[in-house]
Specification:
The structure holds 2 protein chains of 2 kinds. In chain A, 70% of the residues lie in helices and 5% in strands. By secondary structure, chain A is mainly α. In chain A, the strands form 2 sheets. A two-stranded antiparallel ribbon of chain A has the order 1-2. Chain A has a two-stranded antiparallel ribbon with strand order 3-4. Chain B is mainly alpha-helical. Chain B has 2 domains: 48 residues, no CATH class; 212 residues, MetI-like (MetI-like fold, Orthogonal Bundle), CATH 1.10.3720. In chain B, 39% of the residues are buried. Classes of the chains: A mainly alpha, B mainly alpha. At the A-B interface, helix 1, helix 2, helix 3, helix 5 and helix 6 of A face helix 2, helix 3, helix 5, helix 6 and helix 7 of B.
């Protein structure tokens, strides 16, 4: 009997099953994501902590965070560190992606290099920071014959810096700019392999005909890179740019471990004082520690959300414009041939 | 040396000019230098774990020591000492495993189910639902942090694993990945054939679809395990009892512990990093494929 029904109108009846299949997702989303989001927004308009409860204070929480120097410092520091890590990261990723996909150079051992370069990406951020403390560590003092301090023993990267004539006497783990450099380097180290893999996929997606046509026309490798590879990778680069900024604002573990007690707690890393690091740490500390200013934490997360969302929306429209770049390049090449 | 010779020989065969050979050697040297830069920190950690604490404190040296066992017992004893906390590295390891495995299994099973519903059925609101999932991917998780924290307080979820395990059921990016995979690889005809044989819809999903998308499930499982293993903010927000701590929390505890010696400390770091290194060593190809397929961050 069932069979006959199904043959009659096979899909319509069974389509109801879809609601059962998506129900776990929707229920979990409503309960664990949507409700917390709405209540965060609600908190941002309330003045609630252990001692006070004031319903609906309009924008007073927002006023507090916008007047908080630490909040702005964490924003600015995020961007400084972002700039210091993103530019070298993209350059290195592009360089190796082009090198490993180039059909003329035909590198040997590509697989091995890719394996090594991507490796740091899967490590726990907490452990990575500790490893880099070891690398940049300053150890025992070194004196010359007259017992004057000339430097320190240190980790491999510290010794390298010393070898390059930098940082003879300051400890890179105690100096604001040096700490920023160390964090930027950690991020570079963790993420350039990931960007490289994404770029390689992008380059492999370009049809061989485009490159062959350019070859026939006698274009130099540089010309091919700047006129074909780079423009086609532009959307991917834009994507990693935006996700890196958002990821930087949300970063938690690296700055958290970078300022553990082993490091001088008075050193400002992210923010004006060490009590503020990234915005996520700002939110965490406001909500977790007494007096539990949920209102201020909520307001900070709404600001973070608004900022990230507008970046993502901007990216969406920019990417939408950039679609079909390969076709555009074909057209341009044809025009070039005609002229 | 041999390798370099064979390379240059092959270059001669294919009629490269001297300039090109030099360029190629330079490119290889750059690749090797960067590879050394990438791998050096990890090797340094492994070397340090074998050295005595005083030697590590004095300064780094490329010298493999004989203190591996001492550092391991030192770590276990120090953490166990009730005066300094009463932690257990083995328990933390087990906790990390429990959280990763359970949250990841829920995540991939229900994500596959949601993606399957979008792929196989035509239901009302499907177009909206799919766009909505895309939109959810770009929303930063921190927006709900405060609300989730207060909710967990009210429902007595502090010091339980509920906040890490159950939210994994709704993972928009995993659903998106599975949906793309189903679109490319799974034809609706399989479903129709199963229905003709009288299979129930759930059985069709479990017995026909799931085995078919094994590789996508495996990829997403890897990503889930890695991100869950590396998660630090979640545990540090919700867990305060030492016996519930995860490995990254143990790392944090040791970092703030002025009395721990350096050797055991680095041993703790290595134990935290090792499972991920092993997973990567055997499954790096699957991970890289996943990265290039989804552009996942």
């Amino acid at each position: 009997m069932n069979k006959i029904k199904r043959v009659k109108n096979p899909n319509e009846k069974l389509n109801k099953w879809a609601y059962l299949f998506i129900a776990p997702f929707i229920l979990t989303f409503l309960f664990f994501s949507l409700y917390p989001m709405i209540s965060s927004i609600a908190y941002s308009f309330q003045n609630e902590n252990e001692t006070v409860y004031e319903n609906f204070t309009t924008f007073s929480n927002y006023k507090v965070i916008f007047e908080d120097v630490n909040f702005w410092h964490s924003f600015i520091d995020t961007f400084i560190i972002f700039a210091m890590n993103f530019i070298p990261q993209i350059i290195a990723a592009l360089f190796f992606a082009v090198l490993f996909t180039n059909k003329r150079i035909r590198m040997k051992g590509k697989g091995f290099f890719k394996f090594i370069y991507f490796l740091p990406n899967i490590l726990t951020a907490a452990t990575v920071v500790i490893i880099f403390r070891l690398m940049f560590m300053r150890g025992a003092a070194i004196y010359d014959d007259d017992m004057r301090l000339i430097g320190y023993e240190g980790g491999p990267f510290y010794n390298l810096l010393r070898f390059l004539g930098m940082d003879m006497l300051t400890n890179p783990l105690y100096d604001t700019w040096a700490v920023r450099m160390v964090i930027a380097f950690i991020l570079f180290w963790m993420w350039f392999g990931n960007s490289m893999i994404v770029f390689i996929t992008g380059i492999n997606g370009i049809s061989d005909e485009v490159f062959e046509a350019a070859d026939v026309d006698g274009a130099s490798p540089w010309r091919v890179f700047f006129s074909i590879t780079l423009p086609i990778l532009k959307p991917i680069m834009l994507y990693s740019l935006i996700t890196s900024i958002i990821g930087g604002l949300q970063m938690f573990d690296i700055p958290f471990f970078m300022r553990g007690q082993a490091i001088d707690p008075s050193v400002p890393v992210f923010g004006g004082t060490s009590s503020t690091d990234t915005i996520t740490i700002y939110i965490f500390e406001k909500m977790k520690y007494a007096p539990h200013d949920y209102g201020i934490a909520g307001a900070a997360s709404v600001v973070l959300f608004a900022f990230s969302l507008s970046l993502s929306v901007a990216m969406y429209f920019l990417l939408f414009k950039e679609k079909n770049y390969e076709k555009k390049i074909w057209r341009r090449m044809k025009k070039y041939e005609q002229s | 040396m041999n390798k370099a010779n064979s390379i240059s020989l092959r270059l001669h065969k294919s009629k490269y000019t001297a300039g090109q050979i030099i360029a190629k050697i330079i490119l290889y040297l750059i690749c090797i230098a960067v590879a050394v830069m990438v791998i050096l920190p990890i090797i340094s950690l492994v070397i340090s774990v074998t050295r005595a604490s005083e030697d590590i404190d004095a300064g780094f040296k490329f010298e493999i020591g004989s203190h591996f066992g001492d550092n391991l017992t030192g770590l276990i004893n120090h953490l166990h000492d009730p005066d300094t906390g009463g932690y257990s590295i083995a328990r933390a390891f087990l906790n990390s495993v429990i959280i990763s495995i359970s949250s990841t299994s829920l995540c991939i099973y229900f994500s596959a189910m949601t993606a399957y519903a979008c792929h196989v059925y035509d239901f009302k609101g499907k177009a909206f639902f799919e766009k909505f999932i895309l939109f959810l991917i770009i929303i930063p998780g921190q927006l709900g942090a405060v609300g989730f924290y207060t909710m967990a307080l009210k429902l007595n979820w502090m010091d339980t694993y509920i906040p890490f395990i159950f939210p994994a059921i709704a993972s928009p990016s995993t659903v998106f990945f599975m949906r793309q995979y189903l679109k490319q690889n799974f034809s609706r005809e399989y479903v129709d054939a199963a229905r003709m044989d009288g299979a129930n819809e759930f059985i069709t999903f479990n017995r026909i679809c799931l085995p078919f998308i094994k590789s996508a499930l495996a990829t997403m499982a890897l990503f889930g395990i890695i991100s869950s293993w590396n998660n630090f903010m979640g545990p540090v927000t919700f867990l305060s009892k030492p016996e519930l701590f995860t490995l990254p929390q143990i790392v944090s505890y040791m970092t703030n512990d002025a009395f721990i010696e350096t050797g055991p400390y680095y041993m703790g770091i290595l134990i935290t990093a090792l499972p991920m290194l092993l997973i990567y060593f055997f499954l790096s190809k699957v991970i890289m494929k996943g990265v290039s397929a989804g552009g996942l961050k």
